[in-house]
Structure formats: structure tokens, C-alpha cells
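Q: I'm building a small set of examples for a reading group on sequence design. Run inverse folding on the following structure and report the sequence directly after it, with nothing in between.
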């Protein structure tokens, strides 16, 4: 697939079908993503893929916690500031209004998708050592983007989501991730459920005006 096409197809998939992916292909995608750059070639990342019975059990417990409104306790919240700048806060506010407009106040579609972990048949959990400089967070983001673009090139849909890492103790329970690793982010993988309203093609959040994020200095 042409790179421009791959990049254009990168969209959050909020509901997946039950169709399986060749697990060897997932491994090959992650192996290829290892070519991503990192500070001083530190390559701080690790990837854990969960599926099948283990994921079903994790999904069930995760849903119970969400429905009970148990507060999230992400690993990164203990490592990094969770305060947002005014600029970022305004963008998130606009996103919320956009969702409400296009779904005609049916935000429960998004809530249901979140608590069911988007029905993703595979989830990749990405970690870095808890003892890491902030550069490693940047490196992890590059690694994650590489994984997603490579997956899309193979016709696989993706969903990077904060909600997937809300309860790290549950994740460790089913993946065996060590306590000295910070579970930084997760990516749902699978094939998009084309019939799901929450995946409607008209729902593409707006981007900040280019001149607000770009400046050329000579």
C-alpha cells in the first residue's frame, strides 16, 4: 500500500469484528517496528500481546470496574504530570462537543465501546522501565506509531486508547508484566466492524488550525 494511503487510513476503530488475525503476522509487525529510532538506541520498549481466554477474562473484570466507576490508576499517572495545558484542554473540549454533535447525544455508544475494550480480539500492551527518562516515553510513542502504521498496511485496524491501561494491576494479573515495567499504552488490533455506528465514516474529529501549531523561522 502506498504510504499516503496508509497514513490516510489511520483512524481510531472503536468496535472490532470477531475476525482473527494471523498471529505470526502480528509478531512480524512488532519485529519490524523494532527499527523505530530511540534515544542512544536504548530501545526501552517491550510488547505484550493478549488474546483468547486471557483477554476475555481481562475484559470482563475491566468492564466490572468501569461500571462500578472505580478510578483509573495508570502507571504513567505516578510517573508524569497529568495536568493539561490550556491549549490541550481546549482541544479535548472541542472533541467532546464534536462527539455529541455527530452522535446526536448518543455518547453511550462511546462509553459502551470503552468499557468493552472495543471488542478488540487482540490488545498489545507496551511498556518501558519505570526507571526511565522522559525521552523513553517519546520513544514508546514512536514505536507505537510504527506498529499502527505497519498494521494498517496489512489491512488491520487499530485503536490506541488510554482506557485500555486504566487498571495496570488487572493487566499484570493476566499478562505477567513485571512491576518494574510501566504499562504506558495499549493498542487494540483487529478488523473494523463496518456495521457499528460508533465507527461511522463521518466521525473524523477536526484538527487544530495549522497556523496554530506551525511556525517557520528564518
Amino acid at each position: 500500500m502506498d504510504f499516503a494511503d496508509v497514513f490516510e487510513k489511520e483512524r481510531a476503530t472503536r468496535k472490532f469484528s470477531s475476525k482473527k488475525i494471523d498471529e505470526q503476522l502480528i509478531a512480524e509487525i512488532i519485529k519490524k517496528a523494532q527499527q523505530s529510532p530511540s534515544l542512544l538506541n536504548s530501545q526501552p520498549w517491550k510488547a505484550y500481546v493478549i488474546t483468547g481466554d486471557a483477554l476475555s477474562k481481562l475484559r470482563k473484570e475491566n468492564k466490572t470496574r468501569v461500571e462500578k466507576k472505580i478510578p483509573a490508576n495508570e502507571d504513567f499517572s505516578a510517573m508524569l504530570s497529568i495536568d493539561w495545558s490550556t491549549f490541550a484542554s481546549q482541544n479535548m473540549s472541542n472533541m467532546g462537543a464534536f462527539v455529541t454533535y455527530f452522535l446526536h447525544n448518543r455518547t453511550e455508544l462511546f462509553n459502551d465501546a470503552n468499557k468493552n475494550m472495543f471488542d478488540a480480539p487482540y490488545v498489545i500492551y507496551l511498556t518501558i522501565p519505570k526507571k526511565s527518562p522522559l525521552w523513553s516515553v517519546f520513544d514508546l510513542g514512536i514505536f507505537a506509531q510504527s506498529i499502527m502504521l505497519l498494521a494498517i498496511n496489512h489491512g488491520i485496524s487499530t485503536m490506541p486508547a488510554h482506557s485500555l491501561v486504566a487498571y495496570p494491576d488487572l493487566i499484570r494479573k493476566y499478562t505477567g508484566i513485571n512491576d518494574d515495567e510501566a504499562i504506558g499504552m495499549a493498542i487494540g488490533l483487529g478488523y473494523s466492524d463496518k456495521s457499528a455506528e460508533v465507527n461511522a465514516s463521518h466521525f473524523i474529529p477536526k484538527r487544530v488550525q495549522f497556523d496554530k501549531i506551525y511556525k517557520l523561522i528564518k
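The chain has a mean pLDDT of 89.
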